[in-house]
Each structure stands twice: as structure tokens, then as C-alpha cells.
Amino acid sequence: MAVIGATLAGIVQAQTVSTYGTPGLIELPTAEMFDDGALVFTASAFRDTARATMTFQMLPWVHGSFRYAVLKGFDGERGDRYDRSFDIHFRLREESRRAPAIVLGLRDFGGTGLYASEYIVATKTIRDRFKLTGGIGWGRLAGRGSFANPLGLISSRFDERSDPRAGDISETGRLDFGNWFQGDAALFAGGSWQYNDRLTFLAEYSSDLYDVERDRIGFDIRTPFNIAAQYRFRNGSQLTTSVLYGTTLGLTYSYFIDPRQTPAPGGQGASPPPLRAPGDNQGDVRTALDREGLRLVYLSQDRDAVTVGVENETYGQAAQALGRTARVLANTEPPRTQTFNIALMSNGAPLGAVQVDRNDLYESEHDPDNAWRSLARVEISDTIPIFQGGVLRDAYPHFSYRFGPYLNFSFFDPDDPLRYEIGAALGLDYTLRPGLTLSTGLRQPVLSTLDDSTRVSDSTLPRVRSDWAIYARESNLRVEHMTAEYLWRPRTDFYARTTLGYLETMFGGVSAELLWYPTNSRLALGVEANYVAQRDFDVLFGFQDYSVATGHVSAYYDLPGDYHAQIDAGRYLAGDYGATFSLDREFTNGFTVGAFFTLTTVGFEEFGEGSFDKGIRLEIPISWLTGRPSRNKIRQTIRPVLRDGGARLNVRNRLYGVTREARAQELSRGWGRFWR
Fold first, then answer.
1. CATH code given to domain 405-663
2. How far apart are CA 303 and CA 338, in angstroms?
3. How far is 481 from 504, CA to CA, in rounded Å?
4. For residues 635 and 379, what is the distance between their CA atoms, to the nearest angstrom?
5. What is the average pLDDT across 370-379?
6. How confident is the model at residue 454 (pLDDT cuts 50, 70, 90)?
7. Distance CA 221, CA 648 (A)
8. How far apart are CA 295 and CA 543, in angstroms?
9. In this structure, are residues 59 and 36 in contact, taking their beta carbons and an 8 Å threshold?
10. What does the DSSP assignment read for 508-559?
11. What is the Cα gyration radius of the chain?
12. Each residue of 514-544: pLDDT tens digit?
């Protein structure tokens, strides 16, 4: 999992991580980057200060960070300060043989301004083991040795910088464009020496005077020089011990994750069934599919073709389910059957289909490039043209259940860095006929700190989300959802959904959705309309007196590479109008890292702390952790603060999420699993 190393292809790869959790020396940034796609989690601590940072290398030339800092006694009688901030870091120039890498960065550009600073920094590698760094900083990095802003030669507006907002929590979350690269500037510098593959020594001259901490918590600085030693463990993680400003000892630990590399390489699932020789067919297709974790719900045969509909209950990649189905058909169908039409289904509703030629399957089995050769030979299409009859008579009604523990986390709350809830969950699904499903989800908390919060929202909007602590405190056994849902196909390329009941923890009502999503299109368009009422705090069967009509039009687009963009525009639960913009990086194995923000007709003051809704989200497939096939994922959204503006209904089984795995773009991305 190590994502650190020597200079690669002219790009300075980060070997050390600063206390801020970004590529750097000790406190100062460097002009380095992590490996593309890397996730780096860093914890650092020194006198009265602790920082936790998540950094994601979004592109080879840009990374972003979210940081949560705790400063003991910072707010005097009010106690400790829990500060949230965002960074972004752009490479302007790669390192060459003769010239350094150059980076422009913004630190704490969307928080309270406690760490607000901007910088331009250069790093040069000398004989592989030495790295020298130098830069110019503004804001917090313009403390020691400051001088008039050289950008003042361009415009006088760069000469002055307003006072930092370190004490003003109410304005957190705003982008302080007016201060970027303004005011005095200062120089900083440092270097590192890699003694061996495990040990690196670092030294730096810091221009940060820690003025705010000195005034609030008595932080003492005797020298601008910091020194440190960093040890790299075999798994790639790092531990750095440092002496800061001549007065303080510090520890920094960084853990690296490469989403492309599973902790269980090679996989631990059962091997696919080998292809038998034509004519050596035996067994029942339904029984054979059951053994592969696939449920047969549709079967139609003619002389030389067979059409099946399967529900994938096992595999995270739909391509793997298709590959297993094709092998089963080859092993059970008579030799005259030369064409396999395989449709992916969801609760009896057809999503998409793949046509596989039997001879191509045998020819490709032992080809080193069989995945991509077979992809070129299959035909991906909509399911409607190939369906001529109904589902199997005994496929429905169908009952399924899920029971097990659940664990909810709330990270980086303004009053507590970690809240959690542990309990037992039961899910019941009863599909009466194709597309029509009755579903219930129950939860019984056992141990929880979610209900400890006494924070009261400062928003003037209806309390559609900010009363989450009251819901946790006043509920015991919860009906998380209880719905009747109907999913159907109005026509080719269109999907429709209607859901009625208790839709989520806080709201119940009716939801309707229509999605246009052609088989081979990168673009999908959808519209959703809902009328909902707010549920009682006990999360059982009652409602409060607040109701609202809400809905959105949505556009989804698969960008080249691993990226996916989404825009949702409409009316939110608090009655405000606006749009949510999302960008995700989706790795082939299902690991997803994304960010979003919402701007609505609610002004920053009316929204309250945080100014507008924004956050980071992670999706980690269970199969990535275990190496075993699974459709389950760990999902976590990290918001600096949860408020009422820009709040959207959390209805289950939105159509795009249900249908996407069966469309051509997604199947192509995961086709490497077809032969697994």
C-alpha cells in the first residue's frame, strides 16, 4: 500500500507529510504530490493542539484536504476550539533535471480562517536523497520576516489583508476570496535528507509566528527552526517526531491507502465454474446459478437462443455476475443453443442485457486478453426488446431478510470529533410481483453518543435536519423505513419508480421518479417529485405538523477516466430552491471518493454556522476489505456541520443508482471481472 517513493517520471512524489496532513516538511508545505488516487490520513499532536487530516490526490496535479483541529482552552471560558478547514494544492510545474517543481496552495480557504494562508513553493531533488524547498507565503505564513506584498506591483488591492476570522465561528465555511494572496508576504525554506529507505531527517525555517495561539493558549516560540526525524514502516505509513520552535515536542502519524489495491490481494471468493466441453452439458440452470449466488427469475428458450433474467445478490461488479451466468449457460444448455441473452434484473424489473455468443466464450476462455476481447464481441442492449414473456411462475412472491449489527459514525461534529451508535438492524423485503416490493427496516440502538449533543441550531429555517440529536435521544426501537415501492419500465431507455410510506428516518410520504438512461450513453437525466411530512422524534408511526413538496431535476454524466459528475436542481426540504453539485472519483473496484456542495436561496447568515452545505463522501466496498464477493459497501459522508439549508430527502433506491451497473459505461469499466 505504500504510495511514497523516489522521483517518478519527472514528478516529485511526496516522501514526507507535514503536521497539516499535506505533502510537506514539518509544518511547511513542499511542491510534492502523492501518488494519483492516494488517500492519506494524518494525525498530529503537539502542545495543546491536535490535528486530524484526510488528503485525497484527486488528479496527478491537484490534491485536496479536510482537517479537524482541536485547540485546548482556545475559547477561554467557552472551552476548547474544534476547528474545521479545507486545503487545495495545485502543481504548476513538474520537476525537471535542472528546474524544481512549483506548487500553488490555499490552506484553510473555507473555514474560520484560523490557519488561513496561501503560498507558492518550489522543491528540487538533489542526488535522489536530498530535497530542498523554498517558498513565499501570505496570511499566516507571512509572520516572521514579512515584507510588502510583491503582488502590489500588479495592483494596490494586494497591499492590505483584513483581520483573520479565527474567533468568528458564525462565518465559517465562506470562501474568503478577498483575502487570498493579499497583505504582507514572507519567505520560508527547508530541506530533507533520506538517510535510508526507512529514516529521513528534516529541518525547516518557518515564517509562522503562531500569533493567535500565543495570545489564546500561551504557545511559546523561541526560534523559527524546526527539526524532525521520520520513520517509514513496511506498510508505507510514517511516524515523525519533531521539535517545534525550540519549545515543543510533536508527533505526526500518516497512513496511506491506495484505493486500487485491496488489503486482500488475489481475492478469496470461489473460483468460477470451468467451461465443460460442448455436448457434456448437465444439471439444472437454476440450481447452477444458485450455487454462484445468482437468482434466476426469467427464462425463455427457442431453438438456438436462450434468454435469462438474473438478480445479482453477490457480486459488486455486474460484469462478474454476467460472466458467471454465461459459464452456467454454457455448461447446462444443449449444444444447439448458440446465443445467450443475459438480462440483469432488480426486484423483477429488467435493467439491461448482454448478448454472448457461445463460440466466442469458448475461444476467449484461455486468451491472455480475454476480458477485453470478449467485451468487444458482446452486444450490450436494453432489455425490453428481448423480453417476450413473463417471469418464472415460482419466482414471485419472493421474501428476503437481513439481520446483523450496524455502526454509525458522525465525524468532526463542531463539539465532538467522533460520535457513534452501535446496534442491531433487521431488514425485510417482500416482492409481491415484478417491480412491486414491500420493505421494512428496523433498528435497535444499543450504545450511542449521538444523543449526547446539546448544540442548538442557529439556523432560522425549519428544522428538517438539525434536530438529529433529538431524534437520537427520543427514539429507541426505530422504524427506519416502511415502504411500498414499484419499479417499472415505461418504454425503452426509461425507468420509473413510485415509493409510498415512511421513506427515511425523518420524513414519510410519497416519492415518484422518472429516469432517461440510454444503454450506451454517458448522460442520464432524471426528475423526482415528493410530498412528505416530518416524522415524530420517536421514529415510529406518527408525524409532526411540518410538510413540504420537494423535488429535483438531475443530470448525471460519466466523465472520461474515473470521474463522475452530478447536478441536482430543485426544491429542498426546508423550502429553499437551489442546486447541488457533486464530483466523484470512482475506481474500478467500487471504491469512491467524492465531494459536493449546495447553494440555495438561503443566504449565508440565514443558513447559520457553515454558511452552506458541503462535504466529502467515501464508499468502500466490503469486497475491497475482505477480498470476498459482496454487494455491501461502507458509506460515510463527512460534513463540517449539518444544517437545514440544502437538505434533500434520503429516499431509497433512486433509479440512477439502481440501473447504472447495467449500462454500457459501467459494464465496460468493470469488464475485467467477467472471467473471475
1. 2.40.160
2. 9
3. 5
4. 33
5. 84
6. low
7. 47
8. 38
9. yes
10. EEEEEEEEE--TT-SEEEEEEEEEEEEEPTTSSS-EEEEEEEEEEEEEEEE-
11. 28
12. 999 999 999 999 999 999 999 999 999 999 9
Q: How far apart are CA 676 and CA 673, in angstroms?
A: 5
| First-residue to last-residue Cα distance in the chain | 23
Distance (Å, rounded) from C-alpha 239 to C-alpha 468? Answer: 37
For residues 275 and 331, the answer to whether their CB atoms sit within 8 Å is: yes
pLDDT tens, residue by residue, 387-438: 766 677 788 899 999 999 998 887 766 667 778 889 999 999 999 999 999 9
Q: Read off the C-alpha cell for 432.
A: 409481491
Q: Which residues, including other chains, have CB under 8 Å from residue 634's CB and lie 6 or more apart?
A: 618, 619, 620, 622, 625
For residue 627, pLDDT over 80 is answered with yes
Neighbours of 266 (CB within 10 A): 6
CB–CB of 28/206 below 8 Å?
A: yes
The yes or no reply on domain 39-257 and CATH 1.10.10.60 is no
Which amino acid is residue 603, in one-letter code?
G
The CB density around residue 407, as the number of other CB atoms within 10 Å, is 11
Q: Beta-carbon neighbour count of residue 474 at 10 Å?
A: 13
Question: Is the pLDDT confidence value at 663 over 60?
Answer: yes
| pTM of the predicted structure, to 2 decimals | 0.89
Q: How far is Cα 353 from Cα 144, in angstroms, rounded to an integer? A: 65
SS (H, E, C) 186-250: EEEEEEEEECCCCEEEEEEECCCCCHHHHHHHCCCCCCCEEEEEEEECCCCCEEEEEEECCCEEE
The DSSP call for residue 164 is P
C-alpha cell at 28: 511547511
Specify the domain boundaries for CATH 2.40.160.40 within the chain. 39-257
**The residue count for the chain:** 676
Helix (H, G, I), strand (E, B) or coil at 439: strand
Residues 6+ apart with CB under 8 A from 623: 262, 316, 589, 590, 629, 630
Chain Cα centroid distance, residue 290: 32
Whether the bond between 60 and the residue before it is cis, its omega within 30 degrees of 0, is no
Each residue of 325-339: pLDDT tens digit? Answer: 999 999 998 888 999
Is the distance from CB of 442 to CB of 475 less than 8 angstroms? no
Q: Say what the pLDDT of residue 173 is.
A: 57
pLDDT at 3 over 50: no
Owner of C-alpha cell 414473456: 389
CA–CA gap between residue 252 and residue 230 (Å, rounded): 9
- For residue 491, report the phi and psi dihedrals to the nearest 5 degrees: -170, 175
User: Alpha helix locations (H) across 203-317?
Assistant: 211-217, 285-291
Res 283: pLDDT: 78
DSSP-derived pairing of the beta strands 523-535 and 507-516? antiparallel
Separation of alpha carbons 229 and 248, rounded Å: 15
Please name every residue paired with 440 in a beta bridge, in sequence order, or none if there are none.
428, 482
> Judging by DSSP bridges, how do beta strands 592-600 and 39-46 pair with one another?
unpaired
Q: Cα dihedral angle (519, 524, 530, 535), rounded to 10 degrees? A: 90
